[in-house]
Amino acid sequence: MPTPSRLRSALPLALTAALLLAACHKSDPGPSQPVAGDDAAADVPAGAVSLELRNEPVDVVAEKLASAAGKPFAIDADAQAVAHCARITLFTGGPVPLPNAIRLLREALDPAGLSLVESETGGLVVRRIPDKPLPATCAGSVSAQAEPSERAPAPSDASVEKFAAGVRKVSETEYEITQASVALLGDDQAGLVRSGRFVPAQKDGKIVGLKLFGIRSRSMLATLGLQNGDLVLDLGGYALTSPDLALEAYSKLRGAKKVEMTLERRGAPQKFVYRIVEK
């Protein structure tokens, strides 16, 4: 059984791991940064990217292209499982214009049963193509014929419901979370991360925080009051602008009993407070 100190630290660790996942990748993403594997091409012209993808999952590829393109990326809920197991190998042989890179990626996604479409807001969305066979890398991990049960929720939904049972909304920006629900966060940090997309947001060429997309209405992040389009600016007083600050926040928040998070919602700043209670 987890000790009380471990339970107290699980909330800040889980929140930090989720919110800082994107920030812990290579820093300073921008329109001119190549989307590459191990060897990024140098001196890439503005508005061009160099694709060097070696058997990489689609959700990782989407995250890289989002950083390079400076565009928000979202993966529909029913496409997330396939996007995680489907893999892409693609090389451009040098910098290519961004529209060409997106076109190549769209063609590479089609055999995996996924499509890449542009949203009304200018972002890019990965969607599942109905009745398309699953790629070989997804065999056994995703069921194409699975139908939602009307009698019992899926395991992930059950986990969210169990977590939500221990979350009390005190106000629009203040929440109390029981130690039992905190323990669920600590045990399923990957599930928390998968419940939304975290894309580095830039202003005047500099990262200012992480923007949230693809948050389902029934998810851990939604239970914590987060919404699509929220721009998370800092966590526990640490700005989410670089990998160094991300790691420092992760370290300093280990023993916290309370986590404060500043975000921008529809242009207005808000501060969220999460407190851990016994029950």
Automatic annotation (TrEMBL):
Keywords: Signal
Signal peptide range in chain numbering: 1-22
Stretches for region Disordered: 138-158
SUPFAM superfamilies linked to this entry: PDZ domain-like
Domain of life where this protein originates: Bacteria
Name this protein carries in UniProt: PDZ domain-containing protein
Organism: Polyangium fumosum
